[in-house]
């Protein structure tokens, strides 16, 4: 049963310069044929990239597309109609921006905090004048792997006005403030939850941010949360998926964020690889068995060790064999007590089918470019901005733009700017602590570079321009 080596589709891994790789060959253990890789180099690389995929005769291109490349890849996918993108560009629609997450939720009637999106700043101002507070204001699009760094609570119109004047977010993205117990990240493969954990805010705070002192744990994630995550994954037709669900003090569940790009332990990426091998081989490879609530047990292992554990497999429950952990164990779930293995029948791994039409064509849905503002006057200098340290573990807060640059790449980039040499690069890295911090500064507040002796505002302008160009 299943496809022979010759019949199997040709796989390619989609890589991007400067972006953390979600998969590599080791996640596809046992795949008998060569797996190609294709790397997107940004900047005018579209045609070359398309040609490379054609030359390598790739049938299935696997990988996450970061927000900043999303629109280009919609064009690339159109030029490669015979290539199956996994996840599809439509599934990755939510990767691009919070606005897209919201539009996706609106379409499928999925619960989210009440949200208002304004491209017209006058309208936004009028609405904020009349609004009830507190409200949450967020940056919709752009690098945000700093969990909550671009999320603000405002308690009055005056505060909202001041914030927007300072930040100049476009579009203006406003949500009702939802008092919550915690938020819960759920990861799914083939619509089945495979890992879930709570993130709780520090005492007295509202932001459930583990990188700023919040905590996480894997225990007793409620049924309503898992059910919502499954519903969302199905609506997105996602081969793999992560969902942040707000668990409100009112007991209601609402989606905060969802995407295909998220931080996950290597063993989870192995499971995705196994799932895809099953999906693409017409049953030649085994469908992985991933028991419900495995995370409560795996979560007891130290994260440092978990990070090194690979290809975790579980035996399935059989009635005749009563020694199996997941066969004997009971759990309170929803209203009643159930055997864990019974939950595996309810939450099945399902086969996600290829899609042949476009659900979210850019001509219609790319508001962001259609309604973009004229270039803004340069922002006021504000060197008091605190740049938090990005977290790199699986509790990482955000999905968008996990741009990761090595010291060498950073050095290459900075020295490409006239006026910056190796010595200055060294000073910059030393000043901010490490490469990630410098990237954070480049993303969020490049004006801080003037804190370094010998770096003038004029030089910063050049850096900004080069950085923008690099990510285009
Ligand atoms: N509408 C809201 N009401 C209350 N808290 C919120 C709301 N939206 C976000 N938060 C809090 O802010 C955090 C970050 O918001 P999120 O939308 O996930 O942005 P980020 O991209 O920074 O992760 C959430 O994890 C949650 O704790
Ligand atoms: Mg988040």
UniProtKB/TrEMBL annotation:
Keyword Nucleotide-binding found: yes
Gene Ontology BP terms: DNA repair; SOS response
GO CC annotation terms, alphabetical: cytoplasm
GO terms assigned for molecular function: ATP binding; DNA binding; metal ion binding; ribosomal S6-glutamic acid ligase activity
Entry keyword ATP-binding: yes
Pfam families on file: HHH_5 (PF14520), RimK (PF08443)
Domain ATP-grasp: 102-285
Top-level taxon of the source organism: Bacteria
Assigned keywords, A-Z: ATP-binding, Nucleotide-binding
Lineage: Bacteria, Pseudomonadati, Campylobacterota, Epsilonproteobacteria, Campylobacterales
UniProt cross-references to SUPFAM superfamilies, sorted A to Z: Glutathione synthetase ATP-binding domain-like (SSF56059), RuvA domain 2-like (SSF47781)
Protein name as catalogued: ATP-grasp domain-containing protein
């Amino acid at each position: 049963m299943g496809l022979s080596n010759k019949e199997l589709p040709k796989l390619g891994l989609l890589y991007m310069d400067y972006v953390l790789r979600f998969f590599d060959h080791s996640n596809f253990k046992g795949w008998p044929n060569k797996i190609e890789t294709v790397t997107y180099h940004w900047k005018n690389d579209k045609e070359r990239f398309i040609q490379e995929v054609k030359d390598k005769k790739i049938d299935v291109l696997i990988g996450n597309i970061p927000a900043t490349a999303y629109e280009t890849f919609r064009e690339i996918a159109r030029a490669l109609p015979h290539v199956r993108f996994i996840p599809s560009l439509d599934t990755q629609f939510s990767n691009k921006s919070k606005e897209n997450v919201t539009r996706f939720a609106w379409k499928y009637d999925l619960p989210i905090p009440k949200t208002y999106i304004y491209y017209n700043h006058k309208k936004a101002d009028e609405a904020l004048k009349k609004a009830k507070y507190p409200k949450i204001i967020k940056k919709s699009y752009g690098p945000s792997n700093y969990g909550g760094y671009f999320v603000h609570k405002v308690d009055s119109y005056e505060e909202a006005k001041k914030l927007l004047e300072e930040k100049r977010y476009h579009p203006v993205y406003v949500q009702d403030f939802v008092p919550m117990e915690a938020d819960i990240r759920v990861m799914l493969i083939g619509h089945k939850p495979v890992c879930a954990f709570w993130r709780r805010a520090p005492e007295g705070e509202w932001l459930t941010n583990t990188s700023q002192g919040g905590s996480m744990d894997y225990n007793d994630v409620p049924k309503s949360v898992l059910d919502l995550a499954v519903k969302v994954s199905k609506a997105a037709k996602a081969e793999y998926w992560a969902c942040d669900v707000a668990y409100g003090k009112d007991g209601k569940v609402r989606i905060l964020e969802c995407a295909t790009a998220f931080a996950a332990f290597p063993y989870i990426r192995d499971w995705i690889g196994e799932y895809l091998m099953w999906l693409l081989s017409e049953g030649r490879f085994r469908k992985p068995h991933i028991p419900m609530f495995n995370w409560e047990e795996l979560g007891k292992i130290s994260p440092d060790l978990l990070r090194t554990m690979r290809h975790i497999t579980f035996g399935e429950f059989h009635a005749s064999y009563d020694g199996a952990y997941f066969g004997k164990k009971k759990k309170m779930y929803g209203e009643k007590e159930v055997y864990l293995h019974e939950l595996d029948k309810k939450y099945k791994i399902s086969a996600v089918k290829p899609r042949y039409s476009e659900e979210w064509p850019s001509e219609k849905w790319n508001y962001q470019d259609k309604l973009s503002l004229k270039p803004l006057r340069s922002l006021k200098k504000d060197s008091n901005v605190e740049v938090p340290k990005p977290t790199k573990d699986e509790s990482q807060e955000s999905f968008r733009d996990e741009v990761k640059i090595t010291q060498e790449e950073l050095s290459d980039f900075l020295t490409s700017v006239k006026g910056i040499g190796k010595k200055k690069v060294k000073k910059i890295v030393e000043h901010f602590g490490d490469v990630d911090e410098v990237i954070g500064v480049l993303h969020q507040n490049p004006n801080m570079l003037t804190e370094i002796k010998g770096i003038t505002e004029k030089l910063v302008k050049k850096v900004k321009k080069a950085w923008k160009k690099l990510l285009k």
